[in-house]
Protein 1
Amino acid sequence: MGVLHHLQEPVRGWKELPSVLESKGLMRIGLYSEIGRETLINQRSLILKDGIKNETEEMLKFRQKVVQDSNEKTRGVARYQDFYSTSMIRDLIFHTQEVNFDLLEISEILETLGLRFLGFE
């Protein structure tokens, strides 16, 4: 899947994709879900609040803090396999540019772009 969710203006990037499709081509899009990533969004807020930097040493300290935390919501991020890899946790929680979508937003974007939704996988 692509990286529309990491663009500063994902809709602008998405708007360019139909121009490279063959006539009646199928576009498979992967986006981050606002609801599905709630745990990660909460962690990102804590990281910003605590001023934790996107540096290896700070990420390792953050990871240890999460695992030892008594709050189930805080520890929820430890269920993700990416949490245990430095490069993957950087993308999972410490990414500097990420956009999450809900179904209403996706519906509006599809309408604006003149695209038709065919289903989820």
Note: The chain has a mean pLDDT of 91.
Protein 2
Amino acid sequence: DKTISEISDEMGFSHVRYFNKHFKRYYKCTPMQFRKKYKADGGKYEGLKKVKELDIKEAADAVSPYLEDYDRYKFKDKIIKVDFDMSSECGKLEKKFLEVIDIGNAKELLNEENKNILRCISDNIEFNYGIIHGLFTEDMNVFQSKNNGFISWTRVRQVLQFLFEINLKPIILLDKSFESFKEPLNILREFMLYFNETFEKSDFIKLRFKLDDGLSQCLKDGIAEITDEFFDESPLVDYNFDLNICENKIYDTCYMIPYIIQNSINNPENNLCFKAFDGLNDTMKNDNDVHVGDSGLISLDKIKKPSYYAYNFLSLLGSEIIAKGEGYIITKNGEDIQILLYSYKEDIDRLTTFEEIQKERGIKNTAERKYSINIFNLLGDYRIIKYELNEKNGSFYNHWLSMGKPERLTDEERELIKKASVPKISFGFAKKSTVLNIISKIEGYGGTLIILKNVRKHLN
């Protein structure tokens, strides 16, 4: 029921006569004639309505994803209060989440760039073991000479020596490719004989082996028999990790930060095992070279993903737990304090799909969480360092979205995103006091790590 002038203004016409001119050209009548012809009174309007009644269960299934994420029920202004005393008793934090990383195919570690990336991961996150695939393959020059059965172990030695250099103990995966050799047990025995002589004893005993479930029982028994000859304790490990992770675009997003932290802190039995690098295979339905949906901590373009920083934040936690709750864990290491805050909802420990999270609008509408943290009885002055990574700060995936989702990145774009895909860092200082209050908030999916370093300790 707006006037023609009001409609003309809203449509952006500089004068109503231009609106009339173009309207008449398109509809073959003036706006007034059009309104008179099609305007319906109350009764006629009701008659034009088409209403379809749905079964209540069918209707609930259709609208529940939207209602579940409705901001009205998210309590946006709620403040989560956490109080703790530095002198209170603490529990131990077992960092099982740093036990294993999947470092992929052995041949990838013949590439100097990949070695540098893995060295960076090891320096900053310090995983204990690395699962290595395809060590016994022709790509690694592992095949028996037709003349005398000689095997060249040069490439294998280079890879294993590198892993020992960066303090990452190898778990060698023996799978169907190993079983496909004509005499796999002879190859394993030759491996043991060669490396038992080549490596220092302290390095050799760090070797571990994981047997694929698909191996025949006869071969498994033979492997166990040979390894028992060379090791005082069995080097066969039984980690229950799923190494055949399906493609899921969610792996590139900030959803990984709360997902990894929640599972690592509260559900260690979930046995998360992420890859070091993204990779491509012929089963993937990718339409670009940037956002491929693999579970690597580092993208195809060698950019650190949110999952990398989730593990980086976890690795910086102290050895003693002071407090823990929904969306936060607070630890200490001596007199230093570490506060890790992250997005939280009831099923954040479930690996959802990229499509599902888009449908629920979760990436945009995850509620803001505000924290008020009171620390009692500080043991001196503290420097405060705050790291924030979320959809607005440091997310490789969100930077790619902002660029218009290009299929490929130029060298210049790649370097720019690398520089931008880091946490936002801020600093502060706290004098010794009876109570220190820290206010922080998490917006969308992401995490914040606040480290308080005792000044006296770090000056000595």
Note: Residues 184-198 form the longest helix (15 residues).
Protein 3
Amino acid sequence: MIVGTETLRDPAALSAIVDAVRAAAGPRPADCALSLDLKDGALLGGVPAVAQLEPVHLVGLAWDAGIRAFITLELSRVGGGGGPDPSLARRLRERLPAAEIVVGGGVRHAGDVETLAAAGFDAVLVATALHTGALDPSAR
């Protein structure tokens, strides 16, 4: 399950969300990821209690609640052709070296994917570059 900051109503509810997902999964393993939905580096949140948080602080709360995977999605870069901004993801990697970190927003071509992979991120979210053909999934 992926919980986006745009839909998170209360950071204190993260533990309850993790518990509910794991209980619903039964014997199958289930994990939660937190998507840090950002606009110009600021968290997008449905309520001020989320939107006013420093992203790294929210990630610390999520880690304490049992979340081990994080997506940084800079929406101001989606489809803009300006390239990704991995600065928040770097800060997360420094704070939580064992976390799974996915970077999204602004990926233009294979060079961006290679740069992000070389920086140690676990995955890259790509959309526009695939739709426009700028990134060919069959090319190596």
Note: The two ends are 31 Å apart (CA to CA).
Protein 4
Amino acid sequence: MNSLALSMPKKILVIEDDEVARELMRMALEKSGYQVTTAEDGVQGYDTAIFLRPDLIVTDIRMPAADGIHVVRRVRDTPLLEETPILVITAFGDGHATFSLQQGANAFEPKPLDPQSFLATVESLLSERNTLRAA
């Protein structure tokens, strides 16, 4: 990997139907130096992921049009995106979180989000991806 690629901000796609939650995540991530794109539902999110090819996808589980589980499954079934780490955000307890992990998500964070925990999980997932790419 060249030095230019290492210096470019990581691209994160946030898929969240709640505007306030979406904007809070966007602001926290941008403040931490990430390039953030947002989508309002799973359909828009998946289409954006194909175009953007993000370094990380953050998705809510419960959304209109297509939920976060649908996003996880489609991303894992898409060769262009299948290795992209996915962080699932849920207010619906460990059952939903466990199911999302079984479907291919890499990690989950409960709502309401703890900003420090959220950013630590984001950094961990991006670091793991960099380690795998370098190997």
Note: The helical segments are 3-7, 19-31, 42-52, 68-76, 93-103, 115-134.
